From TrEMBL, chain A:
Domain of life: Eukaryota
UniProt xrefs under InterPro entries: MTERF, MTERF_sf
Subcellular location(s) per record: Mitochondrion
Organism of derivation: Poecilia reticulata (Guppy)
Transcription regulation keyword on record: yes
GO biological process: mitochondrial ribosome assembly; mitochondrial transcription; regulation of DNA-templated transcription
Protein name, per record: Transcription termination factor 3, mitochondrial
Lineage of source species: Eukaryota, Metazoa, Chordata, Craniata, Vertebrata
A molecular function GO annotation: nucleic acid binding
From TrEMBL, chain B:
Gene Ontology terms, MF aspect: pseudouridine synthase activity; RNA binding
Family: Belongs to the pseudouridine synthase TruB family.
Domain of life: Eukaryota
GO biological process: pseudouridine synthesis; RNA processing
Domain Pseudouridine synthase II N-terminal: 91-236
PANTHER family to which the protein is assigned, alphabetical: PSEUDOURIDINE SYNTHASE-RELATED, PSEUDOURIDYLATE SYNTHASE TRUB2, MITOCHONDRIAL
Provenance organism: Poecilia reticulata
Disordered as annotated region, ranges: 294-338
Polar residues bias (residue ranges): 303-323
InterPro entries found in the cross-reference section: PsdUridine_synth_cat_dom_sf (IPR020103), PsdUridine_synth_N (IPR002501), Trub2 (IPR039048)
Protein name: TruB pseudouridine (psi) synthase family member 2
One Pfam family cited in the UniProt record for this chain: TruB_N
Amino acid sequence: CSSSAKVHVKTLHISQHFYIYLKDLDADDRLSALEEISDEEAVGISIPPSIPPASVSLQDYVDQSETLTKLVQLGVSLWKLERRPNVGSMLLRLDFNRDVAPCLLFLKEIGVEDSRLGYIISHNPFILSENLENLQARVNYLTSRKFSSETVASMVSRAPYLLNFSVKRLDNRLGFFQQQLKLSASNTRNVVARLPRLLCGSLEPVKENLKVCEIECGFKQNEIQHIVIAVPKVLTASKRKLTQIFDFVHNTMKVPHHLITKFPQVLNSKFLRLRERHLFLEYLGKAQYDPDLPSYISLDRLVSLPDENFCTELAMATLEDFYLFQKTL
Amino acid sequence: MRSPAVRMFHRLEGLFCVYKPAGVHWKLVRDTIETNLLKGVNDTPAPPLTHQVRFLPNPNNESKASGGLMLRPVSVPVLSKHPLVTGPEFQHLKVGVGHRLDTSSSGVLVMAVGNGNKILNNLYGIQTTRDYTLEGEFGMATHDFTHTSRVVERSTYDHITQEKMERVLAMLEGANQKALRTYSSVDMNSQEAYELAVKGLLGPDGKSVPILTGLRCIRFQPPHFTLEVQCLNETQKYLRKVVHEIGLELRSTAVCKGVRRTRDGFFTLQDALTRNHWSAADVLQAVQKYSSKKNKKKKSSSGTLTDKATLQTSEETLAVSQENKADTEETTTEVQCN
């Protein structure tokens, strides 16, 4: 403990440096290390932990901090959190029994499973600094909107930022989805329950995606409703991807709008995969997507089957042929 | 003592090639491969945590009765080395790309991991040639020589015959051979030039204009045609321009529908990994196959020179790829009959 004084003495004159050193030696004389003391006194000497006053990583503090130890035991990824600005300091300042434990108990009460607590805190550490009354008010609001308690628990588990938003904002979002898409209340609940991050993100990309579907792709309102109820992810997909897939399916594969509406999973699939499979089927002469004609291939099986099943059932060729064909594209 | 992750990383170091799909930027391919390799390397079992003895207060009240110490020694794991606190062992891998391919081309893309990047630098230095297949279509000329951009001119192509095509290609080949000789740094009237030419080593040293060392027409069904080229120092845009110029020479117009690299130095289509095989295990296999092939080649042939070897391999691969195509066509026709 006396060594720190010696280290930071750069600005002082050399003689003064020696003076301090000698002075500290005198101080040690009063309490020799070889003096015999009783066991209770030995136990009573408190050794302050040798932790640095400032650090870029939580590694230096995790063994000495009860909060951090318990968080690691819960499964929180501290290495990801310490990169975010100010989160590391915030976590260190929390007291486990006063701040963290009530919040975790609250989450358990609303039905979140123990294994998900680590995931929630890793993605949203700010839930630990939220007021418990606010959290309870938001959960009450959701249950008043006729979301069952299991649904609320699953929504919180999958969208960790959900309970950080005020009641007003949640209400605003739910209202938007109900009015814009002209869905019934139960359908809105269904869509939001399956993709809870719709309530967390900004509404601008959703509005743009809806405009893309209506104007660029040319879907009618009831078709858009059907697509969103079947595949809610279309609302948050990137515009470029959406237009690319739609352009390929409608203009190259020559699939009409009503068939795409019947199988909206194609809009969520990977473009390269769809392209390879379609070109392979075209090469084999099997690219037939009209249900009225014979040897019809349905779009959902085209994109969802794994490669082996696709080759044996739809293309009637071997997997090696498919890989060789991919190398000719 | 190296951890399993470090050992796996050392096994992954080396060269391999992937088949880049068309329409994807080469950087995305490199990033995907790096992510997959990181997943594979970090999935290895972590070494067990070290323990530390700490003295914790005794929870029960018996200590007062016994009158002894109120602390007991407990062995606790040191959490500062726990993977959730330190993060995964590898957070970044050095994955490099050889001769690049632009977004709309596809084909063999050589990549290297870790120490293999140094070999990649040497590969750039050696004069290896690359093999391309160019798909062309007569009838229109566009702004940047591809079939998707703004059309500048349309023309007829009925007058084009295979003979005229062969004549134009021969003329182009002659021009390129002349360029090959002018850009090599030897005097054409010397013995040295003759000896190099006999061995097939006559060529530009380092940077030069793009040179096509080989050019021929594989398929001719107007308006579609396919060319096969072997070239040095090229860019894909230059190859599309070549197709455009062929159209102009034939008094018509042509546009390039696809550029596909079938060989880059030693790496052929056979060794290229398709998108389904971009996981760490497949890359590991490919790297080890390449290094074993290199060792076998070192042991067997000590005197073969690079260009001759590449010429041989290109012919072999032509034969092999033709066989493969024939095989697939046979199997597909069989399948259709069934």
